[in-house]
Specification:
Blueprint: H1 2-25, E1 27-33, E2 36-42, E3 49-55, E4 58-66, E5 73-77, E6 85-88, E7 91-92, E8 95-96, E9 101-103, E10 110-119, E11 122-130, E12 137-145, E13 151-157, E14 164-172, E15 177-186, E16 189-193, E17 197-200, E18 205-209, E19 215-220, E20 226-230
Parallel strand pairs: 1-10
Antiparallel strand pairs: 1-2, 2-5, 3-4, 3-6, 6-9, 7-8, 10-11, 11-14, 12-13, 12-15, 15-16, 15-17, 18-19, 19-20
């Protein structure tokens, strides 16, 4: 009987140590893009269930998410009530989780106002971002011409000072069609990829004022034909 108890204790200890080892692997990142909070939990057991709660003591159950094949969960929320923590359910749908509890901390970055313009024959991309002083973030500009693969063409360091800072990138528009992406790297991990930003030379017009009052020039960038609009 004594030997049986020792064996069961050893099995239980091994199991709990295994869970503890798995719990240490869980990682959570939280970033905001255009007012939408994105919560990523990685290193979960694939297909395991992750529960989100509203308060540190439990509070309101908000939502459950199923980890994908790579063990990643993405929870997006637009209202002001942010989860306080999430936990890996020990058993659900015949998949055993770790029981880990992951508390939310400070956001990684808050990205907003991503815009693009054609100004003086230059493609310009601007955006605003707040980065906490305890975090770091780097912006990468990736570019594709026609159907070619995207390549990184610029890296811009973020400023971690808890304030909203404005950033920009520009280059000459000399291709028939240039497609850009803004990517955000935080803690050495790619956290965000923007939608494709397309500058189409053939379909682009420039508008700019004249010295005369109530006149505007419209110029075709290919033919360089101009037209004056009076208003």
């Amino acid at each position: 009987m004594k030997n049986k108890i020792i064996i069961l204790f050893a099995i239980g200890l091994t199991y709990n140590l295994g869970l503890l080892a798995q719990n240490k692997k869980h990682s959570l990142s939280y970033f905001i893009v255009d007012g939408i909070s994105n919560i990523e939990v990685v290193n979960c057991v694939p297909k395991s269930t992750i529960d989100f709660y509203s308060k540190p003591g439990g509070g309101k159950f908000m939502q459950e998410k199923i980890a994908d094949e790579k063990g990643m969960v993405l929870f997006q929320i637009t209202n002001e009530t942010m989860p306080a923590f999430c936990s890996s359910r020990r058993i659900a749908n015949n998949v055993q989780g770790t029981g880990a509890v992951i508390h939310f901390k400070e956001y990684d970055f808050n990205l907003s106002y991503l815009e693009y313009f054609l100004v003086n024959n230059e493609n310009q991309i601007t955006w605003k971002c707040a980065i906490p002083s305890t975090k770091n973030a780097t912006f990468e500009i990736w570019k594709s011409i026609g159907s070619s693969a995207f390549q990184k063409i610029a890296t811009i360091d973020g400023t971690p000072n808890n304030q909203i800072n404005e950033y920009s990138f520009k280059e000459d528009n000399n291709q028939a069609e240039a497609v850009y992406q803004l990517r955000v790297i935080s803690d050495k991990t790619q956290k965000y990829v923007s939608k494709n930003i397309v500058f189409n030379l053939e379909n682009t017009f420039e508008l700019y004022p004249t010295l005369s009052v109530n006149h505007i020039f419209i110029e075709n960038r290919i033919s360089r034909e101009k037209e004056v609009i009076k208003f």
